[in-house]
Every structure is written in structure tokens, then in C-alpha cells.
Write a structure and sequence with these properties.
The complex is a heterotrimer of chains A (about 350), B (about 300) and C (about 375). With about 350 residues, chain A is an all-alpha fold. Chain A is about 65% helix and about 0% strand. Chain A contains 15 helices and no strands. Mean pLDDT of chain B is about 85; it is low at about 1-15 and about 300-303. In chain B, helix 3 runs parallel beside helix 7, helix 8 packs antiparallel against helix 9 (about 205-215) and helix 12 runs antiparallel to helix 13 (about 265-275). The chains are: A mainly alpha (about 350), B mainly alpha (about 300), C alpha+beta (about 375). At the A-B interface, helix 2, helix 4, helix 5, helix 6 and helix 7 of A face helix 2, helix 3, helix 4, helix 5 and helix 7 of B.
């Protein structure tokens, strides 16, 4: 019989038989045995227990609404319809949508808004800011990036309040006071007067630029210093270093921001809602997402057209889903997924 | 393009390298300062307006139209019960989000990162797609879901349409894909051996998660909490869509009501309320700078 | 505790981690799993621990199949390469954790932790944070945590790889002494053959998920059953030459374009039956430099030119080209061999190994 030689010395007995002839019971080790199926079942139940809260919320607030939206778009549900609101009316809502007098305008607005903001701010300015702030002393670059974070941190209502004040008519507007008769300033209300699109794009662009800036900055900072030194030694100018080395090396972040922000711009409308509400006038700055929202919630003559709003929304949801799936595929996020390296339990 | 390509790499002509560098630096700073000007001007106005009788541009004016007119009467609202009610609602939403997103994301992220079970791949793909997908478009349908939830006896009053709980639930759900993906990333980075050791030591999977793994992802959880708190505190669209009246309004909705409902708008009071609701944000801004920049970068990098 | 592994396999999506492994571990033995990285040794260990599920086969402890027993119920302790200590707990917290989970009372925990810590020589570090410890101390804590629950089976996953060379030597001795004193059956995974040779009662050599050999260390060295084992065990590694073995009138010869050696009949018989080439293995130490004074007998020496000399301290590792075939041999430093020298080597043909080139099996040890 073998014993724990060293452990034996003490007052509490740690001596235990380790001889294989001694039956299991004597060693005090329990080895509860379950069937293979029982264990797999238990493991699955445990995992779903962990996922439970998230699953419930996703089901109630993503899956069910998604299906509901689709159903809604085939009904004539509205706050003024009390008879048979959930009745199936086929593709009526869709034909109404595509024959809407303002449909071409809204479509044009949406494309204009998404691509102008994306190219000028979310990509262009973001890249410029990242390049400039990584090319100066660290503290200074950090300071400017931090200031650029402010718009994102500011509550949308307050943020829009500031922009409204900047663009307001004389004598209250800041722009009109600082630059009288400059760049088309006429003393009037700028976001509801002369240049609503400028303000819509500026307000959204100032939010969007900071995101790209941060992503590009960390990508640029991860470029090996040796590479830039080598280029400098080879006699490359600053512009050539940016064009030939930096930009090609942050190709993936650039692509990432492009797709991610396209999706973002396409579906978000909070700032436009707060700034111009699609105006001034009829559908001047109204984009697809805002139309969907307003049809459903802003009542036209006291009538919330939920079903018609849902029809606008479901088109956008489909587009967004396709883009989202494509984006996940393109960046091969699925291939980053590792197999768990613990299998039991 | 082609001319620059065949040009030999000569040293810069004209300006000396030093002078060129100096000019470049001036240009860079000039550009950056110009770019942040609208932000600075906006904040400057906000701060000036809160303590002024009224403003024209950035200039404070007194009742007679001259420069001046310093006053604290814009802050009179702090004695108004309605604003504290809105503040309380904002806090409730933000805290519910921190707790709800925190629990659901750390538990779900752990399962997706570390456990082998049927359906794991599907859940991961769904999380990813939902993370890229923007949920604003679902609000119309969520409206009906909330009304149905409101029909549940007793608890319906707390989680249905036009309730702070309902708003919080929707906000939690919308933040979840991001939260789960972030936490999964943090769990991915932990050593497998430590978890194996704990299992061999006799811990159940729940205990491993709670006692061994959670302490390791505390920095990540802190970042996620800060992010969700800010999102909850600033929430406008969801509470605006799913609440009616002032009783259940949070701060941003209350502020917007102040802008649109009262005519003529007292802009200076509005500015004061706006600044008031930004106090916690400004505290975060001053004390967690590095963390904030990282959060908003990690927020969609997915790891 | 006796451990039996029967037909054990592990595969993920077609990638084989372990392929039909069979081995028995006697009570109290320390068995080393030895092989290059990715050979399946850690995979097998983790299946014994219950972390991985076998795709096929069984693992038994004392005759009881434990495939469906949870890791915590297997009565095992494990020590990891990365130590796997809980960084947010103190040394005491780490060592006491298994006991806390077993719901041992507070006084009992304290006594047992102190005892194990004293045994490991870290009794005065119990209040320290893990980050404040050196690598060697961390590995002692890890060992203490594995021992405190008095396991019936200890599993080591390359426990010394993260330590520096000197510390590795000390810890090697300590672990071996502790293990044999306590008499706990152990499995020790390593890629370091010196570690395996010095510590293990038996060594399981693995490659590409297949168990190549399972034997006592001396047997692996002197009587390797496969080409892989012969090449993997021993440092510097065995030389392999392609030769044709022929026999007539009781004299056996190994021939190629480069060499011609007379082999003892007991070694060569089986190889002679094979038409075509076989692999002949010759350890670098099984040769001797022939001096001019006593020339070696014909057919027992190899002549060649020195192409490189690596001093190893006591000996020189000499690269010799024998009619174009490369060989590395160990030569006494005092012989003063230089590059460009023409030397004559006497081969100890009684130590020669022969392998079938097709099956890679030994032609000497079935």
C-alpha cells in the first residue's frame, strides 16, 4: 500500500490508499457516470441557459418585429382604420409606394445623402483627420481626436440644438453673425432656408467622421515604423509615403468603414428628424428611412399609417439585411470564429 | 501622377527642409483647428447662453440690447419637479441598460466564445448580422410588440408602451448584438488553460464563468458599461417614439418638448437644460478620455 | 491508480488529433508522452483529463470507464505550461480553490494548504499576488494546487517549458522526487526528450496522432521499433544510410555506392531477406576514430573527409562525407579533428539498427 509520504507527517491524516486493488469506494472518490446522451443534453441546456436572456430579447425585439413588419406591409393597418385593420390587401401598399408622387425625389435624396456624407465626411474627412493627427506629437493628435469625439458623445437633441443655433436667422445665428454676406449667407435661417442639405450633411458628417478617424488612426499606428523609415531613406516624399504605403496598408479598414457606414447612413434618420424633419417644404431633405418613420408615427390628418410605413421600412430592412450579410461574408468574420477548446460540459 | 513617378527623389528645392516642415506643421494645426471650429463654437454658445439673458450669435445681450446681461435665471428649472422626474427616468434607462446589457452580454458572449453546443455557429452568424444591421427600421413593429407587452396583466404596466421599463427593454435589446460581440471578443482572449484548471479543480461551468472568467474581463465589462450608459443617457429616438407626455419622458425627450411645445422658445433655458443633462457625460469625457476613444473604436471592430 | 487507454481516437472535422491509441499505465508510474508539437500528446492528455471528448475508444481508471465522467469527478490534478493560475486570487486563494469547491471546512483548508505550500517551499508566500511571483514560484503554486486535493492521477502539460534552463533542471528533479515519494500515477507531456528520458518510468513516443512506441527509456534508445522513434530519441540524432543487405556463407554485408560494411549475423539476417534498400541507422556515438597505429579491420571501417566540426565541449560533433554520403559522428575532442582531414571511422556494428523503408518498422525488434 502506497501512501502520501510527505503529507503523512502532519496531525490530520492525509494518508490514503492508492493501491489499485482497493475498491473505489474506499478512496472516497465519486465518479458519477452519465450516459453520453445525457451529458450532451446537459451541456446544451447549460449553454442555452447562458444565452437565455439574450435569446429572449433578440426574439422579442428583432425576430418578432421583423416578421411583423413583413405581415404589416400586406395589411391596411392605420390608426383611422377600425373595421378590419389586419386584413390582407396583397401588394397594394407596395404599388402605392412605387407610384408615390415623391418616390423619385425620396430615392434621389437618399442616394445623395448617403454617398455625399460617406465620401466627404465618413471616409474623406475621417482619413484626413487620421493622417494629420498621427503625423504630429502624440499629445496634440490625441487632443484633436478627443475633441472630435465630442459630437458623438453629445445627446442628439443638444447636438442639433447647437447646429440650429449656428444656422439660425439674424440676429441669433452664429454663422450669420461671424460671416455676414459670406458663402451665400443672407441673414436668413440656413438649415430651413438657403442650404438645408449642407446642414443635414454637416450634422451627420461630424458624427460619422469621428468613427472612421478612430478606426483609421489605430490602423495607421499599427503600421511598422521600419516601413516608413525605409521609405524615407529611399527618398519618398510625405505624399508618396501616404499614397504608396499608408493607404494601401489600411485598405481593409477603408473598406470596412465604407460598408459599415453605408448601412448606418441608409437606416439612421434621428438627426434629420431633429434638424429639418425632412423639410423645408415638401420632402426637400426627406430620406427613405425618415419617410418610413413619419408615415407610421407622424400623423397625417390624425392618421398614423402603420402598414404603409411598414412597407417603406421592409424594403429598407431587406436592403440592410442583404448588405449586412454581404459585409459579414466579405470580411470573413465567420472564419475568425474558433472552435471552443473545452468540450465536456 | 506619371510625372511624379519618373521624377528622381531629389531633396526638396526652394524651401529648406526645416522651413518646409514648419510650414507643414502650421498647415496641419490650422486645418485641425478650423475643422473643430463648429464643435467649439457650438459648445461656446451653449455655455454662454446658459448664463445670459439672451444671445445674438455668440454675444450675450442684456434687456437693453447691449453686451452683458449675466443672469442665473436660466437655471431656475432645477427647482422644477418635472426635470428631476426626467432626470430620474434617464438614469433609470441608463442603469437598466448597463445592468441588462451587462448580464445578457457577459453570459451570452461567454457561451458563444467558450462553449460547444448545437446551434453555436448559427447564433454567432446571427449576432454578427444583427450587429451590422441597424434596428431603427424595426421601430414600427416594435411599437406593436410593446403594446402587446402592455396587455400582460400587472407587469404590462412596467414593460409596455409608454413606460420607462418598455423603453429600457427596447434599448437593451438594440444594444445587445454589439454587447455580445464585444464580450465574446474579450472572452476569446482569455487562456483556455485557466478555465480547464478551474473545471479540473471542481468548478461548475457557471462557477467558472462567475468566479474565474468574469474577473478577467472586468476592464472589457467596464468599457461596455460606460458605452451603454452613455447610449442610454442620450437615448432620444426610442423614448420619443414609445412614450407620450412628460411623466415618462427622459431628459432628451423632455428637452425636445421644451423646444417645440413652448412658443416662443426660451433658447437660453433650453441651453441650460441641455448643459445640465450633459454633466455626467462631461465628467466621463474628462476622466476616461483614453477609454472613450478605445470604446468607440472597438465598438464595431468586433474584437 | 491504473490508467488504461483503449483504441482512443480524436478527430475534428476530419483533422486527426489522436489515432487509435492503446496504452496501460501502471499504478504509481510516471509516463511521459513525448513527441514534436502537434503530435497529439496534449490532445490525448486533455482527453484523459475530461476536457476533450474522445471520438472513439475508452479511457479507464482502475478498470472503470471514465469517458462520461466530468473532469471534476475524475480525481485528477493538472499542471499547465502556462501555470494557469487565477491572477485575481492570492497564492492561498489559488491553492485553496479546489478545497473550497469540495466544501472542506475553513480550518481544514488552512491546514492542508499550509502543508502543501510548505512541501513546495512556498509556505511564506501564501499572501502574495500571483503577479508578484517568479516563474518558478508560480509553477510551484500550480503544482501545489494540483496536489492539495490529493489526486489519484497527476497530469503535466509541458510544465517546465516556460522556465529558464537552470530552473528547469532543478524543477525536473523536484517533480520526479515528489512524484515517486507520493507514488501518484502521473502523465507527463513534453517535447524535450532529455526530460522524458530522465523522469519517466515509461515513455510513449507519438507522431501525427499515432503512438509510435511505448516502452522504458533504455529500450527506446537501444531497441527502437520504428524509424521515427530511432530518429526522434537521442541527441544528436541517429544517422540513416540507405543500404542493401546481402548474406552468403554466414557473412552479411551492408552495401551502397558509398559504403561496404560487414554486419553481425544476428542483426543482419532479417534485413538480408529483403530485396532492395533498407535504412541502416547508426548513432553518432557508436563510431571510433581509427588511429594510424592500429588500422581497423577491412569491412568494419568507413573512410571519409571532414566537412565540419562543432565543438560540444567534451566532444566534437563532426560532419563527415563518406563518398558523398553525409554522416554526423561524435569524436573525442583530444583527437583534434579539423575540416579537410581524411579520417577512418571504426563502426560498432553490434549497435547498428535496420529498418524496412516501406513500413518504417525495425528489422531487429518486432
Amino acid at each position: 500500500m502506497r501512501t502520501f509520504g510527505l503529507l503523512e507527517k502532519g496531525d490530520i491524516s492525509l494518508t490514503k490508499p492508492l493501491d489499485s486493488d482497493v475498491p473505489d469506494v474506499a478512496t472516497g472518490f465519486r465518479r458519477p457516470q452519465r450516459s453520453a446522451l445525457g451529458r450532451r443534453f446537459r451541456a446544451t441546456v447549460t449553454a442555452y441557459g447562458f444565452l437565455g436572456p439574450a435569446m429572449a430579447l433578440v426574439l422579442v425585439f428583432f425576430i418578432v418585429p421583423g416578421i411583423l413588419l413583413l405581415i404589416l406591409s400586406f395589411t391596411e393597418l392605420s390608426s383611422a382604420n377600425f373595421n378590419d385593420p389586419w386584413s390582407y390587401i396583397g401588394f397594394d401598399n407596395f404599388s402605392r409606394l412605387f407610384t408615390d408622387r415623391f418616390f423619385p425625389k425620396i430615392l434621389r435624396n437618399t442616394f445623395f445623402y448617403v454617398f455625399t456624407t460617406l465620401i466627404l465626411f465618413n471616409l474623406g474627412l475621417a482619413l484626413l483627420l487620421a493622417l494629420v493627427t498621427t503625423n504630429m506629437p502624440r499629445r496634440a493628435g490625441f487632443f484633436f481626436r478627443l475633441v472630435w469625439l465630442l459630437p458623438r458623445l453629445t445627446p442628439s437633441v443638444v447636438y442639433i440644438l447647437m447646429w440650429r443655433r449656428i444656422g439660425q436667422a439674424d440676429p441669433f445665428g452664429i454663422y450669420n453673425q461671424l460671416f455676414p454676406e459670406f458663402l451665400g449667407a443672407s441673414g436668413g435661417n440656413l438649415f430651413l432656408g438657403g442650404s438645408p442639405w449642407t446642414f443635414v450633411i454637416l450634422t451627420n458628417g461630424f458624427i460619422g467622421a469621428s468613427f472612421g478617424m478612430i478606426i483609421f488612426t489605430s490602423a495607421l499606428e499599427s503600421i511598422p515604423k521600419d516601413l516608413l523609415t525605409a521609405a524615407k531613406v529611399d527618398g519618398a516624399s510625405l505624399w508618396r509615403i501616404i499614397r504608396d504605403i499608408k493607404i494601401p496598408l489600411i485598405k481593409w479598414p477603408l473598406l470596412f468603414i465604407s460598408t459599415y457606414q453605408t448601412l448606418s447612413l441608409l437606416t439612421s434618420f434621428e438627426y434629420i428628424l431633429l434638424l429639418t424633419d425632412g423639410g423645408p417644404g415638401l420632402f426637400t431633405t426627406e430620406v427613405w428611412a425618415l419617410t418610413a418613420y413619419k408615415r407610421a408615427f407622424a400623423s397625417y390628418a390624425g392618421n398614423s399609417q402603420w402598414a404603409f410605413g411598414a412597407t417603406w421600412a421592409i424594403v429598407l430592412v431587406t436592403v440592410a439585411l442583404i448588405l449586412a450579410v454581404g459585409y459579414v461574408k466579405m470580411f470573413k468574420f465567420n472564419e475568425l470564429i474558433e472552435e471552443p477548446r473545452i468540450e465536456n460540459l | 501622377m506619371t510625372t511624379t513617378e519618373i521624377a528622381p527623389p531629389l531633396p526638396p528645392v526652394g524651401l529648406l527642409p526645416k522651413a518646409r516642415e514648419k510650414m507643414g506643421r502650421r498647415f496641419a494645426y490650422g486645418f485641425l483647428i478650423l475643422s473643430i471650429l463648429p464643435i467649439l463654437v457650438g459648445y461656446a454658445w451653449l455655455i454662454i447662453a446658459t448664463v445670459s439673458f439672451r444671445t445674438e450669435g455668440l454675444l450675450p445681450r442684456n434687456a437693453e440690447g447691449g453686451i452683458g446681461g449675466f443672469t442665473l435665471r436660466n437655471w431656475d428649472f432645477v427647482t422644477d419637479a418635472a426635470i428631476w422626474n426626467a432626470m430620474f427616468n434617464s438614469l433609470l434607462i441608463a442603469l437598466a441598460m448597463v445592468i441588462g446589457v451587462g448580464i445578457a452580454s457577459t453570459a451570452g458572449g461567454y457561451a458563444l466564445s467558450r462553449m460547444k453546443f448545437a446551434g453555436r455557429k448559427g447564433f454567432l452568424s446571427m449576432t454578427l448580422v444583427l450587429h451590422a444591421f441597424k434596428a431603427e427600421m424595426l421601430l414600427i413593429a416594435i411599437f406593436f410588440v410593446l403594446r402587446w407587452l402592455g396587455d400582460i396583466p400587472i407587469i404590462g404596466n412596467f414593460i409596455g408602451f409608454n413606460s420607462v421599463g418598455g423603453v429600457a427593454l427596447v434599448m437593451i435589446a438594440l444594444e445587445l448584438p454589439l454587447g455580445i460581440w464585444l464580450m465574446k471578443g474579450f472572452f476569446d482572449n482569455l487562456a483556455w488553460d485557466m478555465e480547464r484548471a478551474a473545471l479540473i479543480d471542481g468548478a461548475s461551468r457557471f462557477r467558472v464563468w462567475w468566479q474565474i472568467m468574469l474577473p478577467q474581463v472586468r476592464p472589457g465589462l467596464a468599457a461596455l458599461s460606460l458605452f451603454t450608459f452613455i447610449a442610454g443617457w442620450n437615448a432620444y429616438l426610442v423614448p420619443f417614439t414609445f412614450t407620450i407626455g412628460t411623466k415618462v419622458a427622459n431628459m432628451p425627450v423632455f428637452l425636445n418638448q421644451l423646444i417645440s411645445d413652448t412658443a416662443p422658445t426660451n433658447w437660453n433655458q433650453v441651453a441650460a437644460v441641455g448643459l445640465f443633462q450633459m454633466i455626467p457625460l462631461l465628467i466621463f469625457f474628462i476622466f476616461t478620455q483614453e477609454l472613450l476613444l478605445n470604446i468607440y473604436a472597438g465598438g464595431s471592430k468586433g474584437s | 491508480m491504473r490508467v488504461e487507454i483503449k483504441n482512443l481516437s480524436k478527430a475534428w472535422d476530419g483533422v486527426v488529433g489522436a489515432d487509435n491509441i492503446n496504452l496501460d499505465i501502471s499504478d504509481g508510474d510516471l509516463v511521459a508522452f513525448l513527441g514534436p508539437s502537434g503530435c497529439g500528446k496534449t490532445t490525448t492528455l486533455l482527453m484523459v483529463a475530461g476536457i476533450y471528448k474522445p471520438s472513439g475508444g475508452t479511457i479507464s481508471f482502475d478498470g472503470q470507464v471514465v469517458n462520461e465522467v466530468a473532469p471534476k469527478d475524475r480525481g485528477i490534478g493538472m499542471v499547465f505550461q502556462s501555470y494557469a493560475l487565477y491572477p485575481h486570487m492570492s497564492v492561498f486563494g489559488n491553492i485553496s480553490y479546489p478545497l473550497k469547491l469540495q466544501k472542506v471546512d475553513k480550518a481544514g483548508i488552512k491546514q492542508r494548504v499550509q502543508k502543501v505550500a510548505d512541501m513546495m517551499g512556498i509556505g511564506d508566500l501564501l499572501d502574495r499576488k500571483i503577479a508578484q511571483l517568479s516563474g518558478g514560484q508560480q509553477q510551484r503554486v500550480s503544482l501545489g494546487r494540483a496536489l492539495v486535493k490529493e489526486p489519484q492521477l497527476l497530469l503535466f502539460d509541458e510544465p517546465l517549458s516556460n522556465l529558464d534552463a537552470r530552473l528547469r533542471l532543478t524543477m525536473r528533479g523536484e517533480i520526479k522526487r515528489l512524484q515517486s515519494d507520493l507514488g501518484i500515477t502521473s502523465i507527463y507531456v513534453t517535447h524535450d526528450q532529455v526530460e522524458a528520458m530522465t523522469m519517466a518510468d515509461k515513455i510513449a513516443v507519438m507522431s501525427k496522432g499515432v503512438l509510435q512506441a511505448y516502452d522504458v527509456p533504455e529500450a527506446l534508445y537501444d531497441r527502437p521499433k520504428t524509424l521515427f522513434v530511432a530518429g526522434f530519441v537521442g541527441n544528436p540524432p541517429m544517422n540513416f544510410l540507405d543500404v542493401e543487405v546481402t548474406g552468403s556463407d554466414g557473412e552479411f554485408r551492408a552495401r551502397s555506392e558509398a559504403i561496404d560494411l560487414v554486419l553481425p549475423p544476428d542483426r543482419a539476417e532479417k534485413a538480408a531477406a529483403i530485396k532492395g534498400k533498407v535504412a541502416m541507422g547508426l548513432r553518432p556515438e557508436d563510431v571510433d576514430l581509427v588511429s594510424d597505429a592500429s588500422p581497423g579491420a577491412a569491412g568494419l571501417t568507413l573512410g571519409g573527409m571532414v566537412e565540419g566540426v562543432e565543438p560540444l565541449g567534451r566532444e566534437d560533433l563532426v560532419g563527415v562525407s563518406i563518398n558523398g554520403v553525409e554522416m554526423r559522428v561524435l569524436v573525442d575532442k583530444t583527437k583534434g579533428v579539423k575540416v579537410g582531414d581524411n579520417i577512418e571511422l571504426a563502426v560498432d556494428t553490434s549497435k547498428i539498427q535496420l529498418f524496412d523503408k516501406e513500413t518504417e518498422q525495425s528489422l531487429l525488434w518486432a
